[in-house]
Amino acid sequence: MPRPKEFTVRLKAADRVKLTKVVSSGTHPARMITRARVLLALDESQGDAPDRRVVAERVGTSESTVYLLAKAFATQGGGVEEVIGRKKRATPPVEPKVTGDVEARLIALACSQPPPGRQRWTLRLLEKHVLLTEGIPPMDHSTIGRVLKRGRLNLT
What we know:
By secondary structure, the chain is mainly α. It has two domains: 13-84; 100-150. The chain is 53% helix and 0% strand. The chain has helices at residues 13-24, 30-42, 52-59, 63-75, 80-84, 100-111, 123-132, 141-150. The longest helix is centred in the first third of the chain and has 13 residues, at 30-42.
């Protein structure tokens, strides 16, 4: 005897049409199409839905994926877009070291007169001076070179 379903999926007519369109047109990411197919297979508004194992075999995914999609649909109150779409990242994975202010200060330093005894700035010399300058985070000479190249500044 199969165990009772914890999370049931009941789609509205508009959601069903939207999911059918996602599945039938090939302009969506594969993961989104798979999720839409799972939700369509789990829909109980037209009658009883098959067991998770059967749905997983039909769609070509794992039972845990089917379970997690049904759980996400139930916990989000039936929001189809949130279940099949990607989550937007709140922050970038790593904060950028070079912001507009840092870039402007670095370009200003590179445009200034080189230290006494030098004819021009080198990337390694700029790297040493960046370490001594307050308000600019420590940067490698290759990072400094990329910033200056992006600013179309040539040290020669």
